[in-house]
Amino acid sequence: MFRPRTYKPADKMSDLICENYVMLQVLSRFGLSLGFGDKTIQEVCEGNGVDYKTFLIVVNFLLEDSDRMQDHLKDLSIPALMSYLKQAHHYFLDFQLPAIRRKLIEAISGSPEQQVVFLIIQFYDAYVAEVRKHMEYENQKVFTYVEQLLQGQNPDAYNIGVFARHHDQINAKLTELKNIIIKYYPTNGDNQLLNATLFDIFSCEEDLASHNRVEDYLFVPAIMELEKEVK
Description:
The chain is mainly α. Helices cover about 70% and strands about 0% of the residues. Helix 5 packs antiparallel against helix 6 (about 115-150) and helix 5 (about 80-110) packs antiparallel against helix 9 (about 190-230). The radius of gyration is 20 Å and the shape is globular.
């Protein structure tokens, strides 16, 4: 069975990105920019005030593409991981999802089947509303709770298990939307823009699934350990 390469602090950051271009998103969400030359992963992270151990834990976890509980949580910086998750929320809510909506409207606006057009936009907006509700809850409730734990406070009315039990995969509406476009949207002539938009929707779905895996298998276990220390 093929096992992906495990990246180490002394590996070049350029090798990581060239061999795994999807890690560009991870780079961005840790606040790291391009132009790092031949510097190692550790050098690039430390030069930008990023915890390199947390960066590598996230990178190797995503590349492994499994739901195995990680063995390295003791090396994980909760503030660094939380900053990463917040940046991911910002990317989805303020950039990627609005960009897909604009592209989707442009792709289908000329269709004579206005009822189908309306249904597609309605489904997309309902999906985005679910994502926004989910992520704003994390931003306002979960991250605030974790910040209190990090300060040594012990909020009795909440624990990370509440979040874990209700951490639904918010993809039901997106599945319906894809089915409507693929099965029922009538295209005439050149449909390259619609296909490109659909590709973006599939990519967004995969990105969100990876994001949820980081929360479920890195963030939640780390907070459970923190709770044991504080409580």
